[in-house]
Automatic annotation (TrEMBL):
Protein name: Matrilin 2
GO cellular component, one term: extracellular region
InterPro entries per the UniProt record, alphabetical: ECM_Assembly_Org (IPR050525), EGF (IPR000742), EGF-like_Ca-bd_dom (IPR001881), Growth_fac_rcpt_cys_sf (IPR009030), Matrilin_CC_sf (IPR036337), Matrilin_CC_trimer (IPR019466), VWF_A (IPR002035), vWFA_dom_sf (IPR036465)
Record carries keyword tRNA-binding: no
Every VWFA domain range: 52-231, 448-620
Keyword Mitochondrion: no
Protein's gene: MATN2
Cell location: Secreted
Length: 672
């Protein structure tokens, strides 16, 4: 009986095991539901703190395609903690390699779904690693109000998140420090073999909150929970932003304010504090000066006075009161001592005590026509500059330096206060000998010339002045007139500014004055934008471009452009504009080739520094206007080609003789 019961029990157990194996287990579904609920809980727990949030993504060739997709997934997951909208969080993004490629700005999208789709559509650049250039663009362009950043007065936190996997090919320390000082809070995320010191040089302080390093791209997702607490409302605003409050930061919904400790008051900048000035309370009672000290004030007297026993009023110190000054005529009490003085017509002797009569002109009886001078013995008459004293010793006559006919002037002369100077008639310039005249070099050369001048920060104010001198030197050699050559100029950095148009000035003097008044912009280097402005506006009829007139542009740059130059340079050249490009210092050869007209060797020039600028101007003035086309019977195309060839040859000879490197290959230009 016992054996039968035991057998029945075993049979039931085996059937139960088999039934359990056949029954589907809802483990996966349960976990999925838990994950969904968890994600929704995170989203709901994240309070709507408005941010201006900008992603700066490394898209260099060292990042493999599957790792690049993981970065995009990380960005999309991070967006789940943000409420995207024009009045909520604004999101922008750029990726960078050898160049900066903005994907969308802070005011491009107002919905989270649109941002996510834009991230999914990004394509891998697979080039270099110019991290410093990307940070500079973020500071100077991405966080501007034009690009969607809200005014600083609104206290909306400005956050940049930089994701990189390698060593930068440029410097990052200085530009990152500038960005932080500008109020941008930087999170630096490194993946793989990134130098931690480089990340700390980029990220904001404290580094424990802003600098993160993971071993590979698979681990980057582990940072999601870290940034949830930083970006969501769980954290105080004072913990999230770089508030820069000197004493106390007080968080408030979606913002913060600075506060001072007791005994201090907040300065107008809203950040720093100063001790309470007890003198400003107005009840100090000091007769002269009130000086604040910690928790009180003291009275102080002006120089030459002493504080009375009441600690408030002052009495003047009289250094002459004891009568020991020894002055012969008069005396005067000063803040430091008692000094002697003499009456009118007398002067103090070196002993500082006695006086002697000196001013023989004081009685007004000298009778001098123009000026007079008192000497030790008498009052003598003098004449102003350009006049000479007549024999009567009183009256004056004007000196005519040209009267003797020895001036030697070839054309005209003019009497001045100091000498007789030579002048030349219109269309001629005075030679270095100061006597003879020569016809203006470009007397019959006609063109529309537009200078495109780099005003970026890398140039520097001193070199910018050299560039202005270079431009004025070229202007001196041209026939500037209403019917002759017209000149326009635009300067560019992060933006493009028209300094003057082709129709604005018709004299060389006015053009040179306008060049001298130019203010250095000193920011980024958007050469492509400048070429676009030149093509679309500078050579338009509205700004003074004339039909059937050769169009020439001289582009001056000293460094890498932050945008593409090829498109607008090509359009300008195809429209008939001849472009000469002068590269200095860190200018990039490939960019110079894309800008210059063909053939390269006639239109592209490069120099290592600004040392030869004066020599360049001198040679260009002497050669740019030689052998100009003037035969009216030539076709318009032939005139254009001859003019371009002549200017090209002069520039070529100029830079060969000035230790300037030509860049390019040999090509032919034909007239169709």
């Amino acid at each position: 009986m016992r054996s039968l019961a035991l057998g029945l029990f075993c049979l039931l157990c085996c059937d139960a095991v088999r039934l359990d194996r056949r029954r589907p287990k809802p483990i996966t579904a349960r976990r999925q539901n838990e994950s969904t609920v968890q994600t929704k809980a995170l989203e709901n727990a994240c309070k709507a703190i408005p941010l201006d949030f900008f992603f700066v993504i490394d898209s260099s060739r060292s990042i493999r395609p599957n790792d690049y997709e993981k970065v995009k997934t990380f960005i999309i997951n991070l967006l789940q903690f943000l409420e995207v909208g024009s009045d909520a969080t604004r999101v922008g993004l750029l990726q960078y390699g050898s160049v900066v490629q903005p994907e969308f700005s802070l005011n491009t999208y107002t919905k989270k779904a649109e941002v996510e789709q834009a991230v999914r559509n990004m394509e891998h650049l697979a080039t270099g690693t110019m991290t410093g250039l990307a940070i500079q663009y973020t500071m100077e362009t991405a966080f501007t109000e034009e690009q969607g950043a809200r005014p600083k007065s609104m206290h909306i936190p400005r956050i940049a998140m930089i994701v990189t996997d390698g060593r930068p090919q440029d410097t990052v320390e200085e530009v990152a420090a500038q960005a932080r000082r500008a109020g941008i809070q930087i999170f630096a995320i490194g993946v793989g073999r990134v130098d931690m010191n480089t990340l700390k040089a980029i990220g904001s302080e404290p580094h424990s909150e802003h600098v993160h390093l993971v071993a590979n791209f698979s681990q980057i997702e582990t940072l999601i929970s870290v940034f949830q607490s930083k970006l969501c409302g769980d954290a105080e605003m004072c913990d999230v932003v770089d508030h820069q409050c000197q004493h106390i930061c007080v968080s408030s919904p979606a913002s913060y304010r600075c506060k001072c400790r007791k005994g201090f008051t907040l300065n107008p900048d809203g950040k720093t504090c100063k001790g309470i000035d007890y003198c400003d309370l107005g009840n100090h009672g000091c007769e002269h000066d009130c000086v604040s000290v910690p928790e009180s004030y003291i009275c102080r007297c002006n120089k030459g006075y002493v504080l009375n026993l009441d600690g408030k009023t002052c009495s003047k110190i009289d250094h002459c009161a004891d009568g020991s000054h020894g002055c012969e005529q008069e005396f005067m009490n000063t803040a430091d001592s008692c000094i002697c003085k003499c009456r009118r017509g007398f002067t103090l002797r070196p002993d500082g005590k006695t006086c002697k009569k000196l001013d023989h002109c004081a009685d007004g009886s000298h009778g001098c026509e123009q000026e007079f001078m008192n000497t030790e013995d008498s009052c003598v008459c003098k004449c102003r500059k350009g006049y000479t004293l007549r024999p009567d010793g009183k009256t004056c006559k004007k000196i005519d330096h040209c009267a003797d006919g020895k001036h030697g002037c070839e054309q005209e002369f003019m009497n001045t206060e100091d000498s007789c100077v030579c002048k030349c008639r219109t269309g001629y310039t005075l030679q270095p000998d100061g006597k003879t005249c020569q016809q203006t070099e470009c007397g019959d050369g006609v063109m529309d010339l537009v200078f495109v001048i780099d005003g970026s920060k890398s140039l520097g104010p001193a070199n910018f002045e050299l560039v202005k001198q270079f431009v004025n030197g070229i202007v001196d050699s041209l026939n500037i007139s209403r019917m002759g050559t017209h000149v326009g100029l635009l300067q560019y950095s992060t933006k493009v500014r028209t300094e003057f148009t082709l129709s604005q000035y018709t004299t060389a003097r006015n053009i040179k004055q306008a060049v001298s008044r130019m203010q250095y912009m000193g920011r980024g280097s958007m050469t492509g934008s400048a070429l676009r402005h030149m093509f679309e506006f500078s050579f338009s009829a509205k700004e003074g471009a004339r039909p059937n007139t050769p169009r020439v542009s001289i582009v001056f740059t000293d460094g890498r452009s932050q945008d593409d130059v090829s498109e607008w340079a090509t359009k300008a050249k195809n429209s008939g504009v001849t472009i000469y490009v002068l590269g200095i210092g860190k200018a990039i050869e490939q960019e110079l080739r894309e800008i210059a007209s063909e053939p390269d060797e006639k239109h592209l020039y490069y120099a290592e520094d600004f040392e030869k600028m004066g020599e360049i101007t001198k040679k260009l003035k002497s050669r740019i206007c030689t052998d100009k086309p003037s035969d009216d019977s030539m076709c318009q195309c032939e005139n254009m080609i001859m003019f371009q060839n002549q200017v090209t040859e002069k520039l070529k000879n100029l830079f060969q003789n000035s230790h300037v490197t030509e860049v390019g290959d040999t090509r032919e230009s034909t007239c169709a």
